[in-house]
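Quiz preparation item.
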């Protein structure tokens, strides 16, 4: 029986008119679990004598083997094993309905139509088909003769609340996103692409696999113009603030439906890092005009890919791959070659990369780390013959957003009183400048005793993470939390007194808001402890830290427990790439160099 089938298949393939058609039928007939659905889909269009639709159907099947989503157990479920012919037909028919109806698509090639309108999925979201005709009902068609304005109008309709709690989740279903209104940037990007394609506007899912200065990646939706240009959508604004963020971007890739390079897919998916294994991305860094240069490959070995990897606390992550003697369009950390990243203080000039290979699912360093900037390429060598003492204040760069949170406390004041209504309140400390983004203690200069102490913000944003009181000898004082009437019944106010610096209480636009403590009787206050909203990445007394330097691998320089808001390590190799780990808690850490007495972050 198998022999007869093989003969029939060979005869059929010989009659196919194109390589695409041959490949599609070969894939369909070789399916062990879903042959009937795949062949029925192809037969439907082959027998209908519509050559264009048949060509599109072949395109979908020939490029289907690498398409998948995840089930609830985190296992990959491949489309080729589960797609249904009738669902694929409905999706394809609607795409051709758009091709005929949409005034925009007349300017696009058939290849662009197949890549950016036709596919039944966008990225690796759980498989659903009805989004293609449902999105336009929910978000409209843009109602504009100008395709860019139409796309902006559609994008502005999509309101998704982004939350860090979803960062580790796989992509949501279309149904889940539109019904819940919550997700991560990948979910919003997927939904925007769906909405644009549903309205007949070519669009794609694009991604920064990992930032060059923080521990995460990013994705966004892009509208594709007929000439190959792009309009990006980072948020739900129409055209304001929808440019690429001014952050360090090593690479930008686009998810595509076509398997590229087709001939290497079967061989590479077991030998490449996850980003490149499925052959479903193309490099579009150059299209977005971020700062980039060409980086030559050291120790070039023909027929073996080499990578540039960026740092993550778990392992170096490959973000660029080359089969020849150079890497093209390697990000330098600037936007359009002009603007430096503004996300954090004391960021170094450029992006840190590790030239590497990939073997047995592990990154193998090929040379010293390099810093790639608009000024060129610099290698980092640890000077193990010359040592220095380093004084460290943080394990992660101080984001300007965190500094802004702290600045909300400017104008706030701590007051003491002996009447519960604070009619006799006296200011004992006024915050006149941005406080440190960590727990801090301020000395109370008055010798007067108070029963009630409060933090009050006369106007503006009321924001505070921690509040505590101490005796003159430094021992902690117990008190009962109190607050103004406006927030007495708000259960979230307890976060100010929970001794967790990552929790906080914030009210925007309040007037004369306050919280504080009732000490039960009048006592002498020695110190007031407080923390603004912060990231808890400063050095914390009592936490244990371990410092590493890079020399072919991460080498330990020892462990220490801090007693202050800084930690000191001696005998550290000069010019070394360093990494400070908090062994007690936390996960946000970045490498740095120590230059002129400061931590410079990479």
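Solution:
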């Amino acid at each position: 029986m198998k022999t007869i089938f093989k003969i029939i298949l060979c005869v059929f393939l010989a009659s196919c008119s194109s390589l695409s058609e041959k490949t599609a039928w070969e894939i369909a007939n070789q399916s062990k679990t879903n042959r009937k659905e795949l062949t029925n889909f192809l037969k439907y269009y082959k027998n209908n004598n519509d050559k264009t639709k048949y060509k599109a159907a072949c395109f979908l099947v020939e490029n289907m083997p690498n398409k998948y989503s995840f089930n609830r157990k985190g296992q990959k479920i491949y489309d080729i094993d589960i797609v249904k012919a009738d669902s694929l037909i409905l999706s394809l028919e609607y795409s051709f309905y758009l091709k005929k109806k949409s005034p925009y698509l007349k300017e696009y090639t058939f290849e662009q139509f197949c890549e950016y309108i036709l596919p039944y999925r966008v990225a690796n979201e759980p498989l659903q088909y009805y989004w293609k005709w449902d999105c336009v009902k929910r978000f409209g068609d843009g109602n504009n003769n100008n395709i860019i304005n139409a796309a902006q109008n559609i994008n502005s309709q999509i309101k998704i609340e982004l939350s860090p709690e979803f960062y580790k989740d796989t992509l949501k279903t279309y149904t889940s996103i539109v019904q819940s209104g919550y997700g991560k940037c990948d979910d919003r990007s997927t939904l925007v692409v769906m909405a644009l394609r549903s309205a007949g506007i070519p669009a794609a899912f694009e991604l920064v696999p990992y930032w060059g200065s923080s521990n995460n990646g990013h994705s966004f939706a892009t509208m594709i113009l007929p000439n190959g240009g792009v309009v990006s959508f980072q948020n739900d604004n129409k055209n304001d603030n929808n440019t690429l963020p001014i952050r360090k971007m090593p690479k930008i890739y686009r998810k595509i439906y076509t398997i590229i390079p087709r001939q290497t897919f079967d061989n590479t998916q077991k030998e490449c890092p996850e980003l490149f294994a499925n052959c479903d991305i193309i490099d579009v860094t150059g299209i977005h005009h971020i700062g980039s240069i060409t980086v030559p490959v050291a120790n070039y070995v023909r027929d073996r890919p080499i990578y540039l990897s960026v740092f993550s606390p778990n392992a170096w992550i490959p973000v660029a791959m080359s089969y020849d003697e150079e890497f093209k369009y390697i990000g330098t950390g600037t936007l359009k070659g002009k603007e430096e990243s503004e996300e954090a203080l004391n960021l170094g000039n450029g992006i840190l990369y590790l030239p590497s290979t990939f073997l047995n699912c592990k990154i193998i360093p090929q040379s010293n780390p390099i810093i790639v900037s608009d000024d060129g390429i610099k290698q980092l060598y640890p000077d193990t013959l010359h040592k220095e003492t380093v004084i460290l204040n943080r394990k992660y760069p101080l984001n300007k957003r965190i500094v802004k949170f702290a600045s909300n406390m400017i104008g706030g004041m701590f007051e003491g009183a002996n009447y519960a209504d604070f009619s006799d309140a006296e200011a004992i400390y006024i915050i006149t400048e941005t406080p440190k983004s960590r727990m801090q203690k301020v000395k109370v200069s008055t010798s007067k005793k108070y029963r009630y102490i409060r933090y009050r913000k006369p106007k503006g944003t009321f924001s505070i993470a921690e509040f505590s009181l101490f005796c003159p000898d430094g021992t902690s004082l117990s008190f009962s939390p109190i607050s103004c009437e406006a927030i007495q019944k708000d259960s979230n106010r307890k976060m100010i007194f929970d001794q967790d610096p990552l929790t906080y209480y914030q009210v925007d636009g309040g007037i004369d808001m306050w919280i504080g403590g009732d000490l039960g009787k009048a006592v002498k206050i020695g110190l007031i402890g407080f923390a603004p909203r912060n990231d808890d990445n400063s050095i914390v007394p009592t936490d244990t830290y371990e410092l590493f330097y890079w020399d072919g691998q991460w080498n330990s320089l020892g462990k220490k427990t801090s007693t202050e808001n800084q930690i000191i390590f001696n005998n550290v190799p000069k010019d070394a790439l360093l990494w400070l780990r908090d062994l007690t808690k936390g996960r946000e850490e970045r490498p740095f160099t120590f230059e002129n007495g400061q931590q410079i972050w990479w």
